[in-house]
Amino acid sequence: MNAYLTIREICEQTGFSRPFVAREMKRGNLSFVKIGRRVRVPKQRFYRWMRGMNADGVSVTPEPEPSLSDPMVSLQSRLDEVAVTLTGIASRMEERGRVLEGIGANLESLVTEIRSRRVKPGQVR
Q1: The total number of structural domains that make up the chain
Q2: Would residue 74 count as lying in a domain?
Q3: Alpha carbon distance 106, 101 (integer Å)
Q4: Which of 34, 61, 112, 121 has the fewest Cβ atoms nearer than 10 Å?
Q5: 110: domain range?
Q6: Contact in structure between 59 and 52 (CB atoms under 8 Å)
Q7: DSSP secondary structure code for residue 59 in this structure
């Protein structure tokens, strides 16, 4: 008897979609091994993973509590996450500002062109 399951076999046995199973593997919730280019899940790991699921396929294994032994470490890591997010937002705003400046320059040139083409009283075009 084979000690490993393929992703297809897992999907057939559980009714879960292939992307869901792949996501669980990527998150580290479902252990797997690579045999060459093939991905296999040890049956024992699969059964352990299934015991941690409810009927809807939602993990019921509680998330580990954050360590409160050193609150400054968790605070610093959260601040680092916020700093990265804010840096990304600032970068996008700067990029949008450059786009808006370009649009403004284009509008100014269009206005200038329209004004130069304006028909003056008594002028025939």
Answers
A1: 2
A2: yes
A3: 9
A4: 121
A5: 69-118
A6: yes
A7: B
